[in-house]
Amino acid sequence: MHTLNRLVAQSRDQEIARAASHPSRLMEHDLRLARRHSRRRRDATTSAREPASAAPPAPARAGDLTSGARAVLPAVVAFAPLALMVGAAVDASDNRLAAWLSTWTIHGGAAQLITLDVVAQQSGWIAAATAGLLVQTRLSAYSTAMVADWRTAPLGLRLLAGVVLSDAPWALAQSRSTGRRGFYLGAGLALFLAWPVMVTVGTAVGDGVGGIAAAALVPALVLGCTVATQLRQRPVLAAAAAAALSAVVTVVASAGFALVCAAVVGIVAGLVVDRPRMRDRRVAS
C-alpha cells in the first residue's frame, strides 16, 4: 500500500512539473483540476438530494399464493352463472371442441360468450375475433398498471401473469400493499383453473341453462357491470353513448356487423372526446 501511494504521488508530481514547464499547460492543468472538483461536488450534492430508491417487489411466497387463492373464491362463485351460460353456448356450437378450447385461450367470460354468439350468427371469424378483442381491450390498462410490480420479475413469471390476467385477480392484487406478485398469481391461477371446470359443467347441463329465460340477461349484466364503473370518465361515457346509438341504427343488420360498427363508432367517439386531454398531456411533458 505504501509503494502504491508513493507511485501515485510521483505521477502527480510529474504531471505538475510538466504543466509548470509551460504557462498554457499550467492553466490547462488548473482548469482540469477545477472541473474535476466541481464535478465531484455536484455528484455528491445530487446523490444527497435524491431519495432512496424503492426496494424491488418481494418474490412470490407460498403464503401470498394461498391468500390470493382464498380471496378470489367469492368471485369464482359470482362468476358461476356466467360460466354456465358460456358452457351452454359451447354445447350449442357447431364445433364443440373448438368452442371449449377457446375457454383456455380467451379466458374471459364476456369475450368468449360474445365471440361464440357472433360465430353462431354466421357473421364470420373476423367479426367474431374483432368482437372478442374489443371486449378484452380493458386488459391493456390492467397490464400497464402492473408494470411497476413485475418489471424485475423473471420472464416466465411475467408470461404467466399475462396468461391469467383478468378483472378479479387484478382488482384484488391492487388492494395489497405488499406481496402483490404472489397474491395476484394465487388469485389468477385459482380462477384460471376453476373457470374451465365451471364451463364444462355448463356444457353438460347446457339444455337446462338455455331454457331459463333470465339466463339471457347474464351477458348484458356482466358487460354492464364492467362498463358502468367507468362511466364517470367523459371519454368512456361518450364511447358508450355513441355505441348505443350505433346499435339502434344497425338493429336490422346482422349481429356481427352491428357489434363491430358499434365498437368502431364508440372508439372513435372516445378518442375525439379525449383528444384535448391527450394534447394537454403532450404539452405538459
Strand content: under 5%
Computed structural class: mainly alpha
* Assembly status: single chain
Radius of gyration: 30 Å
Helix fraction, binned, reads over 70%
* Major β-sheet annotation: none
Q: Give the topology string: H per helix, E per strand.
A: HHHHHHHHHHHHHHHH
* Distance, first to last CA: 52 Å
Are there runs of 5+ residues with pLDDT below 50, and where? 50-55
What's the total number of strands?
0
Number of continuous helical runs: 16
Shape: extended
Description:
The chain is mainly alpha-helical and 285 residues long. It has helices spanning 2-20, 23-49, 62-71, 73-92, 96-106, 109-120, 125-136, 138-145, 147-150, 155-163, 167-174, 180-204, 206-210, 218-228, 234-249, 255-284. Helix 7 packs parallel to helix 16. The longest helix has 30 residues, at 255-284.
Write a concise keyword list for the protein shown above.
285 residues; mainly alpha; 16 helices; extended
Write the layout of secondary structure elements.
Blueprint: H1 2-20, H2 23-49, H3 62-71, H4 73-92, H5 96-106, H6 109-120, H7 125-136, H8 138-145, H9 147-150, H10 155-163, H11 167-174, H12 180-204, H13 206-210, H14 218-228, H15 234-249, H16 255-284
Helix pairs in contact: 1-2, 3-12, 4-5, 4-6, 4-12, 5-6, 6-7, 7-16, 11-12, 15-16
Summarize the structure in short.
The chain is mainly alpha-helical and 285 residues long. It is 80% helix and 0% strand. The protein is extended.
